[in-house]
């Protein structure tokens, strides 16, 4: 049992975070942390943190760009896009938007971490190599809706090479959507270009898996440094954050999605959870919507009478681009981390968080902790230091089980809704 536990990356990530937290607590108020000549071991901790975050930053632009294109390519050819794709994508965008709205609404009215932790001054981080300044249009100034819209569009429609070089997250996502949609419509699925995109995605995910191996060390370094600067009250804030995420996720999974199933497909809540219980339990246990896909397809066809045409299109696509629980988590996490780092989110920044949480859920790897790649997109879009990722990793894995189950539930409901409208066509 112990051997199996210690071979689990989740165990080591949690251990790294706990060890980093309590190590920093042992030093109390360490004024030398911000001095010009800190101890050698603290410099080693900062070096480890910097290397870990630099590796993540190295992968941000290519992972976002090619994952989003790959997600659109999973739609298939243009004829399927026209017949089934329109209804499927409309449903996925609607439920994802509802999920993000729930998350942002809940967190704006209920934020138990306020006052629990001393905010970390952004000035102490702005000169560090892991910090990326927010986009120029995200500030605290007030302006009309049209001014905000012009600023957002100016950032979005940027030369793709410049966007990748400057790590302009909004522009990277916009270009990926445009190129991905063009590939789906204009290029046959047998094209070497399409194959190349899939191969590049596989390569990037392999490199990302290598980086994930050193995550426990990166989490230790980040939690050690952040705890020193936050006065040691970080854990209480994380408990409040977890409570808000779990509550909002259950609201979406136990209320919103069953209501959509009831009124959109004629399937009541009791029938939905009774018949979909097996894939939901597998999703909860594996934290992987991709691993649950075969069971989801078999359940949709055998238990709900969904045709193979619909299940074979809607569910694989949903495992790639329909991540309600993930988008909800990322929206709440952005607001929580903005408070922690003393960043006041303006109206434009909140709109950016909303859009980035939606966009980042498309093409996110359907594997445990796959949302962390998209979380980088949300953080950078809102001007939040990338090192905040390390704080989330301490509690992210347990939360991943709940939101993956909600993701799979959303896919199942989507198949039911599309089946009902497709059968009428």
The termini sit apart by 54 Å
What is the gyration radius calculated from CA atoms?
Answer: 22 Å
Count of β-strands: 0
Tell me what portion of residues adopts beta-strand conformation. Answer: under 5%
Secondary-structure element pattern, one letter each: HHHHHHHHHHHHHHHHHH
The tally of helices reads 18
* SSE class: mainly alpha
What fold name stands as the CATH topology? Proton glutamate symport protein
Q: Roughly how much helix do the residues carry, as a percent range?
A: over 70%
Shape: globular
Instruction: Output the CATH class name.
Output: Mainly Alpha
Task: Pick out the low-confidence regions.
Answer: 1-6, 121-145
| Domain module count | 1
Nearest-integer average pLDDT: 75
Main beta sheet = none
